[in-house]
Amino acid sequence: MRTNTRNFYLIPYLLWIALFVITPIVLVVYYSFFDVEGNVTLSNYEKFFTPVYLRMTLSSFWYAFLITAFSLLVAYPAAYLLTRTKHKQLWLLLIILPSWINLLLKAYAFLGLFGTYGLVNGVLKFVGIGTQQILFTDFSFIFVSVYIFIPFMILPIFNSLEEMNPSLVFAARDLGASPWTAFRRVIFPLTLNGVKSGCQAVFIPALSLFMITRLIAGNRVITLGTAIEQHFLVTQDWGMGATIAVFLIIAMVVIMLLTGSRKRGLQNNETRKIA
Amino acid sequence: MKPAKLPNLYLIVVFIILYAPIFYLIFYSFNSGGAMRNFEGFTWEWYEEVFADTRLLIIVLNTFVIALLSSAISVIFGIAGALAIHYVRRRQPKNALLSLNNVLIVSPDVIIGASFLILFTIIGIKLGFVSVLLSHIAFSVPIVVIMVLPKLQEMSPTLIDAARDLGASSWHVLTRVIIPFIKPGIFAGFFMALTYSLDDFAVTFFVTGNGFSTLSVEIYSRARQGIALSINALSTLIFLFTILLVIGYYFINQRNNRTSARARAEGRR
Predict the structure, then answer these.
(1) Measured between alpha carbons, how far is B54 from B50 in angstroms, rounded to an integer?
(2) How many CB pairs under 8 A join A and B?
(3) Over the stretch A75-99, which tens digit does the pLDDT of each residue have?
(4) CATH number of the structural domain B54-268
(5) Domains of chain A with CATH codes
(6) What is the pTM (predicted TM-score) of this model?
(7) Which of A33, A113, A157, B238 could connect to A194 by a Cys-Cys bridge, CB 3.0–4.6 Å?
(8) Is B139 in the A-facing interface, judged by CB distances under 8 Å?
(9) Extents of the domains making up chain B
């Protein structure tokens, strides 16, 4: 009896998995073996290993690394201070709230803020530095990306800080550890899991950003995501786009293995999709 | 430890930076000057422009139809998926199913978009409403599964046994026992799917054809042409709507936690 019901529920679900999880991945790999004319070839892979593409991949990883590092630098103290506030759930909600607002709108806001006559340049002029070109620079790209990813970094770190037993810190301090030593030897190692899942939640989307590179960085920054979009939608070279996608998938799997996500479930779910 | 001034200052700066762009947008949506600089005077002009723009209103309608339809359909598939995973007893296939479920949650949108574009082209589905709807359903299903599954695990199997002993058919067990129990999870999943769908840009951007557009895609193409204060006005409206959604989600979550706490308390008794 139970066997029958079980099979019944599996049918639609397995159909979904087959059609929208397995087939797309297989198709991406399959397409990576075709060139523009539709011949079966390995030329896409050869092309990927030429200096042009390797440099692009490297710079994409470098930007993603910078974005992750800066997010961590800003987010860790913020998460730590959040756990010390009185109404922490409310504060946390306030931190998360901007991440619910459409990504496009936030990027668009920065077009105004960073523009030649925008608020930031107004302030710069006021303090006597004078108007600067902010939009379409590496700085603006990294700043806006960090801005967008900060909530996703704060959330897992906040959760792991909350899980930590505070008496461990008191014990360390009682035994003569300085605040810095207590942080380095006790707090940070205990919250490493949160840091890892935060980095995972930032690094993978940062590799595949493409909307921000166009709007904010003005095509100066080419990430793997931008390259894929370019090949699929602009030059129509699906084979090459699929090849880059294959490498992006490989990078993603490696990062997931490195940051080891033993804890799955709702926490991951808060990692909302961005790109 | 005494609360020092400096740490609070840090938090306040983080908050200001997080909210500054949003309020900057809203502030200039009332600017009669026509640009995101030099506030000249208060005006409703841009809001009137938004409401007079039929094309834009149709796009807003499209976005909501896609969001509501895709969340509703993905809820059905998601419940089936959660039940399927729940009923698999052996560890290995269960973990395999869970991993496959999470693939679409963790993969970058560009990959999802590109691979779905290939998929729809091969199957021969015309890019437009159907392709966007299908892809939104596809990436919402795992979210619903993840929200419903913990509720199923919370449910005591004796409930089902009792229902069966009393003569309920499989269908009755599902509709009268299981669904009412996991209802909070279903609502949370529906809400999550709704916000994902409303928020999505990258996947839609890939699979939308020429004649069809959603709000995110439209804002992108307008923003690429430069600044127009009607986008600001539209942003303000979306911002208000988002806050309403968040508040709604927050209350559903609260109720969710309360019922599960109650269930746990009753279980202990």
Answers:
(1) 8
(2) 251
(3) 999 999 988 888 888 888 888 888 8
(4) 1.10.3720.10
(5) 51-270 (1.10.3720.10)
(6) 0.85
(7) A157
(8) yes
(9) 1-43, 54-268
